[in-house]
């Protein structure tokens, strides 16, 4: 049976923070080359349909914590706060693995990016699951703590924004279409990256509810990874569409 090694949690969380800064340095000026930022002359040879790629990439984030829980003897089901936090993480990735991919209408996905994405999901799935299942210690009344309740509300708000924004993006295309159009409605009224904004809010909510180094490292990584992509989406829309609303911000309403 596995044991908790705090030094391992610290090392993996620190590495995740370093990877976040690396992502920021790599993609702040130049976007990662897939989707609308893919250069036609430099398309990778190996690609998978978007639905299959998203399923394979996100699956480890759901399976790894589930496997860690199954391997724990005896199973850890208490306290309630810990169980709920683990469920929140798995809930998000259940949606991303088993629901989102089967409705997406994105372009074929480069195998290279799929490989690194899946590798990250294994890494982060292990870190978050290992901490919550083997290391985390919460009081029995953690569910009434202001950190848990406020974080949970942020998580649910962010997830709602993310799912709603994905729905609006999906409705822009008819089946088989690959052209890009101006997103309308919801939080897209104010920001170009409404779906990214929702996911960032979601994981910072999770970090507050969990109040742990691994969760805050993941939230920071999410910000550094998809924050620049939202910025580059914003620039793309401004350059591509002459009628794009000039009042929209890149990521944070009324600020950035």
UniProtKB/TrEMBL annotation:
Principal location: endoplasmic reticulum
Keyword Signal listed: no
Give the E.C. number(s). Answer: 1.3.1.22
Sorted UniProt keywords: Differentiation, Endoplasmic reticulum, Lipid metabolism, Membrane, Microsome, NADP, Oxidoreductase, Sexual differentiation, Transmembrane, Transmembrane helix
Q: How does it sit in the membrane?
A: Multi-pass membrane protein
Catalytic activity annotated for this protein? a 3-oxo-5alpha-steroid + NADP(+) = a 3-oxo-Delta(4)-steroid + NADPH + H(+); 5alpha-pregnane-3,20-dione + NADP(+) = progesterone + NADPH + H(+); 17beta-hydroxy-5alpha-androstan-3-one + NADP(+) = testosterone + NADPH + H(+)
Alphabetized PROSITE patterns for the sequence: S5A_REDUCTASE (PS50244)
Q: Which Gene3D superfamilies match?
A: 1.20.120.1630
Q: Which InterPro entries match?
A: 3-oxo-5-alpha-steroid_4-DH, 3-oxo-5_a-steroid_4-DH_C, SRD5A/TECR
User: What GO annotations for molecular function exist for this entry?
Assistant: 3-oxo-5-alpha-steroid 4-dehydrogenase (NADP+) activity
The GO annotation for biological process reads: androgen biosynthetic process; cell differentiation; sex differentiation
Q: An example Gene Ontology cellular component term from the record?
A: endoplasmic reticulum membrane
The similarity annotation says:
Belongs to the steroid 5-alpha reductase family.
Q: What is this protein called?
A: 3-oxo-5-alpha-steroid 4-dehydrogenase 2
**Organism in which the protein naturally occurs:** Brachypteracias leptosomus (short-legged ground-roller)
